[in-house]
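Notebook, p. 212. Picked up where the previous page left off. The plan for this session was modest: take the two constructs that came back from the sequencing core last week, fold each one, and keep the raw output in the notebook itself so nobody has to go hunting through shared drives later. Recording the first one now, exactly as returned: residue sequence, then the structure token string.
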Amino acid sequence: MAAPAQKKLLALDTNLLFDLAAEKDFAHAFREVYQERGYSLVVPPTVIQELTYYALVKQCAETPLALKALQQMRAWGLTPFDLKSWATASRSNFPKS
């Protein structure tokens, strides 16, 4: 019996989330194409931290985009992930020496 296929993950960077928030067509096309291909689009904690910084601390031209990106991530089908749980899960794929 074949093992179930693992979900393909694709980590996004802050710039793509800014582009999604700015409603740039190429960014939404990228997101839609990879989601249709079965990828789970994930947002690393460093991106969440950077967006939060722009949204709450920096107060600059990117502030409204950062706020929108944080608010819309789930609607766009993006999943924040925790590096610690990911590292634990990936370690289980390697045999112990």
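Okay, moving on. Second construct, recorded in the same format:
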Amino acid sequence: MAVNAETKNKQTDTIDLNVIGSKDEAAENRTVASRTLLRSKVEEDIAAFIARGGTIDEVSPDATADPPKKPENNYGSRAI
């Protein structure tokens, strides 16, 4: 799903960066209030996503993105 520039700007305009902090800021500098505000924003976004018919799949903790590789046979591959 592509997000056009207007929608992206609308989403970023609603976020108060002074309250939630920036990614460049150390986590120790963020306040409890800013974290609470951020958590409530995430909860609202999740509720809106589910209300639009979205689903959330739970992934098992041992799942990996990379499948296991087939062993390579390097025996005798060096030049004489």
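Notes on construct two before I forget. Residues 11-51 form one domain.
Flagging for discussion at group meeting.
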